[in-house]
Design brief:
Helix content: 55-70%
Oligomer: single chain
Number of helices: 9
Order of helices and strands: HHHHHHHHH
Largest sheet: none
Shape: globular
Strand content: under 5%
Number of domains: 1
């Protein structure tokens, strides 16, 4: 396996990722539903993600719900609502490809940023803490690599550099 790559999750972990993605999306769903209370496509996508984890629907059904949530996102001009709908779409799409869980989390952060103007650090931290520890490298591989590089840079900053003037 090459550096930066992660192995595919087993079936149980795939389902855990879908549940986590659904939680991420549901957390920001009010940003969509408050503006579009009659449009249930994003909510149905989150429900589809959870139904897939319980074996109640097939991947194709979850994928159809994901596409509907993305259509809802395209139908809005509100950035927070659009990002929340995309988070829901990615949550449902996690049934098809586990990597979509990362998209659900990313769009959830974007929804918070758009709604509040903040950097959404609290949302990111909540996501990180709520993900089972053994799955964090699967979702946050880039974050883990960045933290590793940062630690090495801090450590090397205290070493004298022979080439410095």
């Amino acid at each position: 396996m090459k550096a930066g790559q992660t192995k595919q999750p087993n079936e149980q972990d795939h389902r855990l990722l879908a549940l986590w993605a659904a939680d991420c999306a549901e957390h920001v769903l009010p940003h969509f539903e408050d503006k579009y209370p009659q449009d249930d496509r994003p909510r149905k996508a989150i429900e589809a993600a959870r139904a897939w984890t319980r074996g109640e629907i097939l991947v194709g059904q979850a994928r159809t719900a994901a596409l509907a949530a993305h259509a809802a996102a395209r139908d809005t001009d509100d950035a927070a609502a659009r990002a929340a709908a995309r988070a829901a779409g990615h949550a449902a799409a996690t049934a098809h490809v586990a990597g979509h869980a990362r998209g659900a989390a990313s769009y959830a952060v974007k929804a918070v940023k758009a709604a509040t103007g903040s950097d959404a650090a609290a949302e990111s931290e909540l996501q990180h803490r709520s993900l089972p520890e053994h799955l964090r490298p699967v979702v946050f591989a880039v974050r883990a690599v960045a933290e590793s590089v940062s630690v090495r840079r801090v450590g090397s900053a205290h070493r004298p550099n022979a080439s410095a003037p």
